[in-house]
Amino acid sequence: MDAFEIAKLIEQRNQQQSPYLEFLRSSSLSLGIYMLPAGGIDPQQPHKQDEVYYVVSGQGTIRVGDQDRAVGSGSVVFVEAGVDHRFHSLAEDLVVLVFFAPPESA
Q1: pLDDT of residue 19
Q2: Pairwise CA distance, residues 93 & 37, whole Å
Q3: Which residues pair with 78 in a beta bridge?
Q4: How far apart are alpha carbons 51 and 99 in whole angstroms?
Q5: What is the pTM of this model?
Q6: Any residues with CB less than 8 A from the CB of 105 and at least 6 apart, and which?
Q7: Beta-carbon neighbour count of residue 40 at 10 Å?
């Protein structure tokens, strides 16, 4: 079994330069924590994998394709592979769990 604590993952992510920390990878799934500061810019490009975002904390907006949706603690958003998407208008620091299926290429 693998088990994780969000607070510890945030600490680990804070010790690196990248906004994304992958903390679990199997042959069919990867999970990471993605953090963006209030007012920050999300540099994401479309991915080759389906992904699900679970917002742990913070507030902002996500654009998926040509649709915007406000997100906050507890929001869950599915993004199909290849679709342009990014967070914007971040009113609070954003902490997001990211699920990729299958995992991103290393």
Answers
A1: 96
A2: 4
A3: 52
A4: 5
A5: 0.94
A6: 48
A7: 15
* Residue 54 pLDDT greater than 70, yes or no: yes
Q: Which residues contact 92 (CB under 8 A, 6 or more apart)?
A: 38, 57, 58, 59, 60
The answer to whether the CB of 5 falls within 8 A of the CB of 33 is no
User: What pLDDT was estimated at residue 104?
Assistant: 76
Distance CA 68, CA 62 (A): 6
Task: Taking residues 97-103, report their average pLDDT.
Answer: 94
Domains in the chain: boundaries: 6-101
Residue 96: band (very low, low, confident or very high) from pLDDT cuts 50, 70, 90: very high
pLDDT (tens digit, 9 = 90+) per residue, 61-91? Answer: 999 999 999 999 999 999 999 999 999 999 9
- Report the phi/psi class of residue 58: left, alpha or beta, with left for phi > 0 and alpha for psi in -120 to 50: left
The CATH architecture to which 6-101 belongs is Sandwich (2.60)
DSSP string, 32-91: EEEEE-TT--------SSEEEEEEEE-EEEEEETTEEEEEETT-EEEE-TT--EEEE--S
